[in-house]
Write a structure and sequence with these properties.
Helices cover 47% and strands 17% of the residues. It has 377 residues and is of the alpha/beta class. It folds into 2 domains: 185 residues, Rossmann fold (3-Layer(aba) Sandwich); 169 residues, Rossmann fold. The strands form 2 sheets. The chain has a 7-stranded parallel sheet with strand order 3-2-1-4-5-6-7, with helices on both faces. A 6-stranded parallel sheet has the order 10-9-8-11-12-13, with helices on both faces. GO terms for molecular function: lipid-A-disaccharide synthase activity; phospholipid binding.
Length: 377
């Protein structure tokens, strides 16, 4: 297939991938004039001028049952993307995380003769080692954001390129120089229930119940729910009772709201890394349906599922997963973090996250790798 050197297919199916991919595209646009990008993304990619065929809000499927339920739609999306790729003949496809969808797309794209760059590796080192052979077969260039991923892929004969983590670019210079000190009379708790509708529905009610317990015990003064822009406010407000006037809702970016929180409840995912980057003590929570959890337990090879703990190399945040996440248990875990000395100790332990995420410039290094790749295909 004769490719169009300035046309790219890009697939980022989640908000974090949307943000990181947008940073990459902005850097790539400085290297290649007239760049045309189409595919799946969100508002951050729209702002770069990318043509969205599907929005990330249409692609948020949580767990096996959700995927099965939406299989006809998923197949239609795949077919639409492949048909457009046949027409446009992009110089390459950039696939960003989102492995359930993207690894299937990689196979089809490879058959069509479209080179594949994978940016931000799926967490195969945690749960999907059986999928490594798909990476080896269908991915032409793997760009990873953690140093240990280079060694992981090397043992399978794959030469991955470490570019650093784009969160360092996103938050550089925004972290307060002095860590927040706990004032027991004026404690604010953040609630970060995830970026998918199903996550919010599953996690936010018990987060709210947990902070109610702490509020009624006069352990906290206020709490704040962090809303993501593509989900409706009623999804969040519906979890609140008339007596919950101490709980607010904000649509601020994490760099704006995290510095004012004494501690947070946070859904397992990229947000745990961002919370750790700002040094905010956290309780990591997660729940999925029973079938998905059963399958995940058989696949996961690590003691921790929270990225913040995996990257730190130690348990810097407690994890309440599935039945372990109850309002009572969550409230007691968070209460410990509100002791000033303990809060300070946790913040010091979290400094390792900034160190592990590396230096700034990740997005530019990734763009340079993509640009060189395009020139050579």
């Amino acid at each position: 297939m004769q490719s169009q050197k300035n046309t790219l297919l890009l697939i980022a199916g989640e908000p974090s991938g949307d943000a990181h991919a947008a940073a990459l595209i902005k850097e790539l646009q400085t290297m290649r004039g007239g760049l045309s990008v189409f595919g799946i993304g969100g508002e951050a990619l729209v702002a770069t001028g990318m043509e969205l065929l599907y929005h990330i809000k249409d692609m948020a499927f949580l767990g096996l049952s959700e995927v099965i339920k939406h299989l006809p739609f998923i197949r239609r999306v795949q077919n639409d993307l492949l048909e457009r790729a046949r027409k446009e003949k992009p110089s390459c496809a950039i696939l960003v995380d989102y492995p359930g969808f993207n690894l299937r797309m990689a196979r089809s794209l490879k058959k069509m003769g479209i080179p594949v760059v994978y940016y931000i590796s799926p967490q195969l080192w945690a749960w999907g080692r059986g999928r490594v052979k798909k990476i080896r077969r269908y991915v032409d260039k793997m760009l990873v954001v953690f140093p240990f991923e280079v060694d992981f892929y090397r043992q399978y004969g794959i030469e991955a390129v470490y570019v650093g983590h784009p969160l360092a670019d996103k938050h550089a210079g925004r972290v307060p120089q002095e860590p927040k000190s706990v004032d027991p009379r004026n404690i604010t708790i953040g609630l970060l229930p995830g970026s998918r509708k199903q996550e919010v529905e599953s996690l936010l009610p018990d987060m709210v119940r947990a902070v109610r317990i702490l509020y009624e015990e006069q352990k906290i003064k206020r709490a704040q729910i962090v809303k993501v822009e593509h989900l409706p406010e009623e999804l969040y407000a519906g979890c609140l009772a008339a007596s919950d006037s101490f709980i607010g809702i904000t649509e601020e970016a994490l760099h704006q709201c995290l510095p004012r929180y004494d501690a947070v409840f946070v859904a397992s995912g990229t947000a745990t890394l961002e919370t750790g980057y700002y040094g905010v003590p956290m309780v990591v929570v997660y729940k999925v349906n029973k079938l998905t959890y059963f399958l995940a337990k058989r696949l996961v090879k690590l003691d921790s599922i929270a990225l913040v703990n995996i990257v730190a190399g130690s348990k810097v945040a407690p994890e309440l997963i599935q039945d372990a996440f109850t309002p009572q248990i969550a409230a007691r875990e968070l209460e410990i973090m509100l002791i000033p000395e303990k809060n300070r100790e946790i913040r010091e332990n979290l400094l390792i996250i900034r160190e592990k995420l590396g230096e700034t410039g990740a997005s530019r290094r990734a763009a340079t790798e993509v640009n060189t790749f395009i020139q050579n295909v």
